[in-house]
TrEMBL record:
Keyword field: ATP-binding, Nucleotide-binding
Domain called ATP-grasp: residue spans: 360-561
InterPro entries, A to Z: ATP-grasp, BL00235/CARNS1_N, CARNS1
Top-level taxonomy: Eukaryota, Metazoa, Chordata, Craniata, Vertebrata
PROSITE patterns hit by this protein: ATP_GRASP
Protein name per Swiss-Prot or TrEMBL: CRNS1 synthase
Species of provenance: Turnix velox (Little buttonquail)
Matching Gene3D superfamilies: 3.40.50.20, ATP-grasp fold, B domain (3.30.470.20)
């Protein structure tokens, strides 16, 4: 019913003249606007605001204990929101100011108090009602910042005030209004300092009475340190060894976003990333038994092209040893090549760990009996040391190709014979380590549930760890079917996995980097399957960013630069993801890969549309079907999210049924049934 007229602009900081009028008083309003307009400075981008005045709610006050008259009071709610991990707005602090209803309640004019006390004082007796209001406030404050960040993203650096100008902290003030007998939150304005000051005052007042620190100092420190680290990596020259396939397409855009100068060493001279990097250095390193020689060549190549890198790293399994060798030659931070070699070769990892007998428990506790198989002659001896059922697989394998459950010596011979016939060198199946030869190993079958632990380690210190769960694999090959993040495991069991993964890495001599450790968790605790001495593959980087916020790629770059990455000290999941893998052989028809995108069943086109609307998470692993028959790899990961794991699984199952991903031969419901 009332309107207010005031001047806005940075010069005023909310202190400009303000007048209030009844809505009907058109002439008075016009006069006030005219008067304010004359005060404006043209160059300062100032304006006159004509706003509806939202009346504060007059709440039913609780029966007065004293007969003294009650004054009508107004409540101003002050919130502070930060740009948290993954550019997501997160509410840091809420506090209230209570004042006389007839004048606006200003920041800094009174000592702040909590929302809960204020509402109680106002007569909101039911605690559920207060809780519901607090939840709505969180949503509203975070949505306000999201809207502002979205608008800011559209601006040019010049409009924003500079290439590095970002809003990382935002104060949002709210008023409680009463609409049709219900309390409504109304956002009044945003600010950059008032709410921060008030919220910091609340923190220090808590200290006065011995309250523990709230989340505010930690969240603010993380925001600022993360921003500082983004500035640190900007413009750095990074040598990347191995571009990887479509599954790593995110790298090029992310690198551009961080302002990295990528100098890419890649075996495929026609790689699609050639035009997306600062320097493209085609160099054929596919024969990895000659990595020492390659390392020398690569350093010469870098030298001749005038590249003087600040860091060198690889996220591509085949290239991790070469990257370590190049780091060593250039004197850059990295792991000792010997450590990476131990981790890269599966039987050596386990045999090395068997010998690590110190510690409580010693790393040997996580190792599993296994033997190398270089020829059929080795099978007999291996079978004497490894009980059946066992797993026969490639020493340097990746992507689960060639892994098989064998029940007897003869099955082991048969599998080895087929594998040695079909998979001889890299050209037979690129990207699964055949550049190191096709030696195999026989390993004891480990029972239990399967998990990935993605670790960030800096100079031997654990900086961050994330545990995800895998559903049942498809036997007798071990194709991954389903996964979820966060893990279903209780914290103590996750902690066992993280500690085991870290101990295994350290015992192998891996001290610096982002590692992906695969383990199984059985009744007797965690057992190691393998260490991937690189960033987790498939959907892992995407999912961890979505659920927890931090970026494994940035962490890997920071560690490679010799900088300890700042990560959430108290990671908390924002959502739940569940996903399934799709196979060309099973789903090519339904999803229309065989006929190209959008052809065939048209499922793929539908998925892409849903992905663009943020309703599913697609992670392409290959352009199309990868490998054939028993050597097939999944080509696509389809994920759904939900507020709970159950919700994510229900959505995913529905989607899989609708698109024909689910079938009697590919029972998605069964795959997801492990995530309880
Ligand atoms: N010893 C084992 N016991 C049980 N399952 C195993 C064993 N080794 C491998 N697997 C299964 O096979 C999958 C692939 O094996 P892994 O060694 O991780 O090869 P890759 O490097 O190809 O991923 C694992 O994720 C797991 O499901
Ligand atoms: Mg694996």
């Amino acid at each position: 019913l009332q309107v207010s007229v005031w001047t806005a602009g940075w010069r005023w900081k909310g202190t400009g003249t303000r007048s209030t009028h009844r809505k009907e008083e058109g002439t008075a309003v016009a006069q006030a606007v005219g008067a304010r307009l004359k005060e404006l400075k043209e160059k300062e981008e100032e304006s006159v605001l004509l706003e509806a005045l939202v009346p504060t709610a007059r709440l039913p006050v609780s029966p007065p204990r004293s007969p003294a008259p009650r004054l009508p009071v107004a409540l101003r709610i002050c919130t502070l929101v930060c740009r948290s991990w993954g550019d997501r707005p997160q509410l840091c602090q809420v506090t209230c100011g209570v004042g006389r209803a007839e004048a606006p309640v200003r920041h800094g004019a009174m000592l702040p108090q909590s929302l809960d006390s204020s509402l109680q004082q106002w007569g909101v007796v039911a605690s559920e009602q207060r809780q519901a209001l607090a939840t709505r406030l969180r949503e509203a404050a975070e949505a306000t910042m999201a809207a502002l960040l979205a608008a800011e993203a559209e601006l040019t650096p010049q409009q924003r005030g500079g290439a590095r100008a970002h809003t990382d902290l935002l104060g949002v003030d709210f008023l409680l209004a009463c609409v049709d007998d219900t309390l409504e939150l109304v956002a009044l304005s945003t600010n950059s300092q008032h709410c921060l000051e008030t919220c910091l005052l609340v923190e220090s007042m808590g200290r006065d009475i011995g309250e523990p620190h709230g989340d505010l100092p930690r969240l603010l420190a993380e925001v600022m340190l993360h921003r500082a680290q983004c500035h640190l990596v900007e413009g750095k020259d990074i040598v990347l060894i191995g571009a990887g396939g479509v599954s790593k397409s995110f790298v090029w855009e992310a690198a551009r976003g961080y302002g990295l100068k990528i100098h890419l060493v890649e075996s495929d001279p026609d790689h699609f990333a050639a035009g997306l990097v600062e320097t493209f250095l085609p160099y054929d390193s596919r024969e990895h038994r000659r990595d020492e020689e390659h390392a020398q060549r690569v350093t010469e190549l870098l030298h001749s092209r005038g590249v003087r890198p600040h860091a060198c790293l690889s996220y591509w399994d085949d290239c991790v040893v070469l990257a370590a060798l190049v780091c060593q030659r250039l004197g850059l931070p990295g792991n000792p090549p010997a450590a990476v070699r131990v981790a890269k070769q599966k039987s050596r990892t386990h045999q090395h760990l068997q010998g690590c007998q110190h510690g409580h428990p010693p790393p040997s506790a996580f190792a599993v009996p296994c033997r190398r198989l270089r020829s059929h002659g080795d099978v007999e001896q291996a079978a004497g040391a490894v009980p059946f059922p066992a797993v026969a697989k490639l020493e340097f394998g990746a992507g689960g190709v060639g892994v098989k459950l064998v029940e007897s010596r003869s099955q082991c011979h048969a599998h080895a014979a087929r594998l040695w016939r079909d998979l001889r060198d890299d050209a037979d199946h690129p990207g699964i380590g055949l550049g190191w030869g096709n030696a195999m190993l026989l390993m004891e079958y480990v029972p239990g549930t399967e998990h990935d632990v993605d670790l960030v380690v800096f100079r031997g210190r654990l900086m961050g760890a994330w545990v995800s769960d895998n559903g049942p694999t498809r036997l007798p090959a071990f194709l991954e079917t389903a996964a979820c993040l966060p893990s279903c495991l209780p914290p103590d069991r996750q902690a066992q996995l993280v500690r085991a993964a870290l101990q295994c890495c350290l015992a192998c001599g891996l001290q610096d980097g982002v590692f992906n450790v695969e383990l199984k968790l059985g009744p007797a605790g965690p057992r190691l399957l393998e260490i991937n001495p690189r960033m987790g593959g498939f959907y892992l980087r995407d999912w961890i960013r979505e659920v927890y916020g931090p970026d494994l790629l940035l962490a890997a770059v920071l560690v490679a630069l010799g900088v300890p990455p700042i990560l959430p000290s108290r990671p908390s999941p924002r959502t739940h993801l569940a996903g399934v893998m799709c196979l060309g052989s099973e789903h090519g028809g339904a999803l229309g890969v065989r006929d190209g995108e959008g052809g065939g069943g048209g499922g793929m086109a539908a998925l892409v549309r849903l992905h663009e609307r943020g309703l599913v998470r697609l992670n392409r692993l290959f352009e199309e079907t990868a490998g054939a028959g028993e050597y097939e790899e999944p080509y696509l990961s389809v994920g759904c999210q939900g507020a709970t794991r159950a919700e994510a699984c229900v959505r995913l199952l529905g989607l899989c049924q609708a698109l024909g991903i689910d079938s009697p031969r590919y029972p998605v419901e069964y795959f997801l049934s492990h995530f309880k």
